[in-house]
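[agent] plan:
  1. take the single chain provided in the ticket
  2. run structure prediction with default settings
  3. attach structure tokens to the ticket
  4. add a short note for the reviewer (M.T.)
[agent] executing step 1
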Amino acid sequence: MSRKPLRVLTPRSILPALAVMLVLAAGAAAHANKPVPFGDRVAGPGDAEATPVNSESLSAADLDLRVGPGLEAFHKRTGEQAWSYRREGAEALYLAMAGDNAIVVWDDGMVTSVRPGDHAVRWHRAVPGLEDWLRGDGDPGADKRTDVQRKQLAKQRAAAALHTVQRDGSPWLALVTPNLTMGLRDADGDLRYNDRPANGCVYDPLRAVHTDYAVLIPRTCTNSSGQAVSGGITGYRLDSNGWAMSTGPAATVKVLDRSRVEVTDGPIVPPRVFDTKAAAPETACGSLDAPFAAVRPQGGCTDPSAPVADAPAAPAGGAGPTATDGPADTGAPTAPAGDQP
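[agent] step 2 finished; step 3 output follows
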């Protein structure tokens, strides 16, 4: 600005100062009306502003967490609402826990992590293609679905898309769509891997399962006529390399315990057991590879060279059969049970 007294300033010398003041005022107004990132809004009971919570006095174990329309938290002891987490223009569809943190899938394809103890939103991650798959607009007969059916479909697919792996001390999660799978570290939402199926193949999230160590995702491959010609199952882990196995197009995976799954691949091939912790198949008893197997069946195998236990000795004195024994063999034919008095 000019150093002259204000009474002698010309209009030209005042304009730069007014411009600076207008810019500052506009910036302050924009900052005051700046939307919350991702439309987040955390509120206390009755939509009041949520207050900080002492994480030592409140934890995920103290709360009952529910989804719809956002993430709602209620005190287990009293049933009263503790807080709610909403996102403007989006609806929460599915909730899963990764350690002590809540992972929420939203209908706009966003995935968020929330720490229930102090209702802090930890991270956001958008999953390409997830929103379209949740909506299912391109599916055959999609135009005939009712609103209720569309919402049910979205919730079913959201549950199939999210898999949380409770690996001790470092949980992680996988997001699965037909054309993409992503692995995220729960600690910070960092993307650790992403993978797409081969040409002519798609993942089947509705058949995907997870253990405490891995996520297993079946895939189906089709020929130029659209007929399913083959399939496979890919296993993903965060702490080591994954694996892949060839199957038919309709193979199913069933979780047996924290680490083992059973793969059923039609009526001809016998079911196989795979250990996701050891990343190796379970070797069947009697197999030539059994002595060298990395994973043996639960309970072990019976040693064929072990002596067979002797039959129980007869009672002293040569007494006849006891009340628990079957009828004595007299050499005569025995009448059917139905014909006996």
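[agent] step 4 note for reviewer: The two ends are 122 Å apart (CA to CA).
[agent] ticket updated
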